[in-house]
User: Fold this.
Amino acid sequence: MLNIVLLLMIVFAIASIQTNSLRHAVIYLCVFSLLCSFAYVLYQAPDVAMAEAVIGCTLSTVLYLVAIKKYRVFRVYYSGHVTLLEKQPEFNVLKNNLTTMMDNFLREHELELDLIDTKETFDEIHGLHDYDVIVEHDNKGITMYGSQSNYLYDGLVTYLIEHNAFDIDYEYILEEEGDELL
Amino acid sequence: MGKHSELFAQTMGLVYPIIILYGFYIIYNGHLTPGGGFQGGAILAGVFTIQYLTTDTKNVSLDILNRIEKTIYLLLLLTGILIVFYMNQELTLIQKSYYLLLMNTLIGVKVSCGLTVIFYRFVLFESR
Assistant:
């Protein structure tokens, strides 16, 4: 009995690492925790098992789910300053296409697109606001900036490259260490 | 968490008192059976978590909970010191069990207040 429980624990631990969806990972972790508390019971430690069951299964699971929920908005700053008159119609078409593509991508990942139109330049947005991705659209073309630590940015870039023929430059922003976490 | 399912809310409303009773039972029998102040307090804190999930309450006074927790922590220390240093020798077995019950209750309330404060603090205030 104990061996089965221990093996199942290993299975669920690996499953929670290997799964692609964060929600699934949280639920696997919850099951792992429950099995862990059962293993404690089999080891004759009901006291510890009770604490593990309550904290591992209820409190930490709900906390993780709330944390995922809080991260569900994906904020994109769209900074467009096209000044040449003959490029104006093209600008709107390109912008609509790009936002639709981004929306589709984010929907697959259970996220919501929060698009903010602005006239500010890249440096101002980078310094003043919280953002996930900055799109800069000027006379030369579209440039997209995202931070290297944002794991969704890689996915977005590959998605856009696979699905279309836009001419976009992709740039990575290198963050100074340790400032974003505080 | 946005919209709440009616089914979930009704079911949890039924389960509510049972969880509370179970938490108090664990605290009350802490010195006889497995469990004790910490486990019972954690179960009581789970009730507040469920309350957040079903009703989306925003008007929890964290300040009062914080103050209760600190007061009880002080009481806990004082009771322990008092009993151990002044009355340990003349206590009978039954009196000792009452002493353990008191300590378990204090720990239970303190833990449930603390975990609730942590949970609501995270849920209501922490964001990017």
